[in-house]
Fold:
Amino acid sequence: MKSPEKRGKKLVYISEGILDEVAEISKKKGESITKYIEDLLEQAVRIDRLGFRSEELADLLEVIHVLRVLGANFVPLDVANPSIENESEAVLAEKWYESGRLYGRYIRERFKDPVGVLNMMLRVIRWDLNEVAAVQDGQSVTVRCVSTSLTRVGASFLSKFIEGAMHGIGYSTISRDAMRGMVIISFSK
Structure:
């Protein structure tokens, strides 16, 4: 990606505490405070263009770390779908559920907002999903995933993973609807 054109300079006020921390980091890296801040701001612009809020970046990196720790592996759908067809649906559904429970239990212990992390995780690991939402309302959560390429079986497995994850986080299932193209599940604490 092409860097933005560097023209004149502008004065920006930054709180002293943050600037002290930035000075310490930039010193360790052997670069000037100005270069370090400019590099960070360029990355913030890239993050925004990708549709993420800058606050989500640390969460995103932590999600990737969780995926690595728990042994996740990127597998294109063209490769995964044929291998799924060779197993019984019941056996695979149980594997998806247990995998989800492991993820849910791990993120419950590691993060202050495990439902938010699960939402981010689904956005990151499931590129085929057009929409992912985990909406909290008091003690209840509704998770909705929509995809034009989600098969009935794929929706069933995805719903089992989500259900397992939410059970691992500490929620109980209220209702579950998994159909071709969409999964909607409601939970309560």
About this structure: The chain has two domains: 1-54, 56-188. The radius of gyration is 21 Å. Residues 89-110 form the longest helix (22 residues).
